[in-house]
Structures are given as C-alpha cells and as structure tokens.
User: Fold this.
Amino acid sequence: MANRIYIGDMNEALVYQKLKKDLLASAISIKLVHDEVRTMYDKKVYFLVYDQYYNRANSRVSLSVLISDYNGQCKVSCVGSGSGKGIFFDFSWFSEDSFILKCESILFELGFKEGQ
Assistant:
C-alpha cells in the first residue's frame, strides 16, 4: 500500500472534475469504479476509486482519491493498494506508487504541493 497527500489552492469541485477526466484518459486499462460526492458540515467531499491492471505485477491495483476542504485549501489524499501475489510476500513492483504518480502529475500541473 502507498499513500500521499497533496495541498493546493484550487476549488475542490474543479479538482474533482479534472482528476476524474484526466486519470481515465491516462491509460486504456483504467476504470472508474466508484464516484461519490457527499456534503458534510456544509462542505462537499469527493471520493473517487479507480482500478487498473498492471502487467508487471500481474495484478489489479486500485487508487482511492479523497478531495476535501482543509482549512480553506484543497486537500487530496491518494491511496494505492491491491497489487502483489502470495500470502506472505507482497511484491508489487511499485505499482501502487506508479498509480499515485499519475494523480500527482495532474495535481502538480494545477500547482499542488505534497503535504502531510
């Protein structure tokens, strides 16, 4: 499993639309498997889950993306998981990181920085 957080000054709804569109366009094997928008305490929270087959890991990998307001800034949390084989060894060939990096490149184009 791999995870990263990004912080930026863009509107959450615009980031949601951009990631939704651009991640699907980044590879033919990517599928959007869940798309949810919820309102919590008068703020919208966006949740996207993608699935992609990685040949080098001979497995499917998921990317979960949570977009929310964080003290007036846009916070994007990315979690990649699901690759590797076997009960005791989870050798993923960095597939989770690779999936997160697709999201990261889109966010960096929008001026986001890696956060905590």
